[in-house]
Design a protein that fits this description.
This protein is an alpha/beta fold and about 450 residues long. It has helices at about 5-30, 50-65, 100-105, 115-130, 160-165, 180-185, 190-195, 210-215, 240-255, 285-295, 305-315, 345-350, 365-370, 375-380, 390-395, 410-445, and strands spanning about 30-35, 35-45, 75-80, 85-90, 140-150, 170-175, 195-200, 215-220, 225-230, 260-270, 275, 325-335, 355-360, 380-385. The chain has a six-stranded mixed beta sheet, with helices on both faces. A six-stranded mixed beta sheet has the order 11-10-9-12-13-14, with helices on both faces. It is globular and about 90 Å long. The two termini are about 10 Å apart.
Length: about 450
């Protein structure tokens, strides 16, 4: 072997070692499992999608599946294939392991005809997400549809997409090539920035893998203290106040409420502030939701600044059940302009490290909501004109309870060291094998 060839070989081995070490570090830092979800991929295989491109879509599906915690009691996956007709390739009840799912995906063939995207969404809503096909009714189980398409639909999608979202299906829309962005936006859930993706060609679709793996991520360490700060002023009105209580319980349904994980407190305010119940009083969802239902309506004014000060000075203190070292989340709901100044209180809450969400309905002032919200503001501030559409906000409001593991902690270093040692052992074996090959070549030359 020539010297340049040997140098090139060493470079290849060095590059492989770098990749192995990088992968080892990533594995050592793994903190999350995917939360239980019913996921249905809706994939366009119309004649505009070439066979090689359809294979790239299947690779994308496989990589997303590889990052999921697949199982009967974990995440279930279905695949709907469509063109002019719709075919249920994989039902949610079919496969309980990743290996079986990946094998089933590899066997899917393109239908190669028209593009009936609306028909496919309707099929997913009526059939793929039905209990008969393995979908679960529990409020703790999210329903997610991921649509991949490259063309203009030949049928109506707007109305059927609205019905699907109203049925509780969160829709992600991925467009490729010549697809119209208007089409994607009509299908996708809010916020559109999080639910619409575009790539120029199918060869780039794999870049979206990480996004969807993170979208389904739920941290194993879910300890957090959450306090709702609810506007009970007279402008809300009794019938809407009942809708607000239902909205609170929708968010509670998404939390892992227990003695060790999520604790929830509730504060109502108007001209004065009233603590309905402190953090940690109720450590199961049933008792917590019953307590929310019993909350009476205060009426009167809207002193939001005073209420946020109460949150900082009382609700998140150890005397009121707050736990040291646990993430603190405040969710402020209001339907109108505050009658006092909110700036100082909002600033103090965020300076204390509290993650603040601001939710407004009707006459709420969006500038005030943004002032309350944590950064990034787009992820922490929500507004809707009508109390009846608050449920969509409950679906989109994501409380991130992930805690970053300190890489300097002993356990992290041990895990990292183990992975590095494994990578180095593999590299050493490769080096020995190459050395033997070089020696054999040298003997032949001699």
């Amino acid at each position: 072997m020539t010297l340049p060839g040997f140098v090139m070989l060493l470079c290849i081995l060095g590059a492989q070692a770098t990749v192995d070490l990088r992968n080892a570090a990533a594995m050592a830092a793994g903190l999350c499992n995917t939360k239980p979800t019913d996921v249905v991929f809706i994939i366009d295989s119309s004649r505009s999608v070439r066979p090689s491109e359809f294979e790239q879509v299947k690779v994308f599906l496989t990589k997303v599946i590889d990052g999921l915690n697949v199982g009967a009691d974990a995440t279930r996956v279905g695949v709907v294939n469509y063109a002019s007709r719709v075919k249920n390739e994989v039902s949610l009840k079919s496969h309980k392991t990743k290996a079986a799912l990946v094998k089933a995906v590899s066997k899917i063939e393109p239908l190669s005809s028209g593009t009936m995207t609306g028909l496919a969404i309707q099929f997913a809503m009526n059939v793929a997400f039905s209990e008969a096909e393995g979908a679960r009714k529990s409020p703790d189980i999210s329903k997610v549809a991921i649509i991949v398409t490259d063309g203009r639909p030949q049928d109506n999608i707007r109305d059927i997409a609205v019905r699907a979202r109203e049925a509780g299906i969160e829709i992600f829309a991925i467009g490729v090539g010549r697809v119209e962005m208007t089409t994607l936006r009509q299908m996708a859930s809010e916020p559109l920035d999080d639910h619409v993706d575009y790539v120029e060609s199918y060869s780039l679709i794999e870049k979206l893998t990480k996004k969807f793996q993170e979208a389904f991520c739920a941290c194993s360490n879910a300890a957090t203290d959450v306090v709702f700060l609810i506007d009970g002023s007279k402008s809300v009105r009794p019938e809407n106040f009942e809708l607000v209580k239902k909205w609170i319980n929708l968010i509670i349904d998404k939390l892992d409420v227990s003695e060790t994980n999520a604790h929830v407190g509730l504060v109502q305010y108007s001209s004065s502030v009233k603590q309905e119940f402190p953090l940690g009083r109720y450590n199961n969802k049933k008792a917590l939701k019953e307590a929310v239902k019993k909350m009476g309506y205060m009426e009167r004014g809207t002193m939001t600044g005073q209420a946020i000060n109460f949150l900082v000075d009382n609700s998140f203190t150890p005397n009121q059940g707050a736990r040291p070292g646990v993430a603190k989340v405040g969710i402020v709901f209001t339907d109108g302009r505050s009658q006092d100044y909110i700036g100082d209180a909002a600033k103090k809450a965020k300076e204390n490290g509290f993650e603040m969400f601001a939710v407004g309905v009707g006459n709420a002032v969006e500038d005030e909501l943004k002032e309350i919200a944590s950064i990034p503001v787009a992820d922490h501030y929500f507004y809707t004109a009508d109390f009846k559409t608050m449920n969509q906000i409950a679906k989109n409001l994501q409380i991130n309870v992930c805690q970053v593991e300190d890489p300097c902690e002993c356990n992290s270093l041990v895990k990292f060291q183990k992975k590095v040692e494994e990578a180095l052992q593999a590299l050493t074996k490769k080096y020995i094998a190459v050395t033997k090959r070089i020696a054999a070549l040298e003997n032949k030359i001699v």
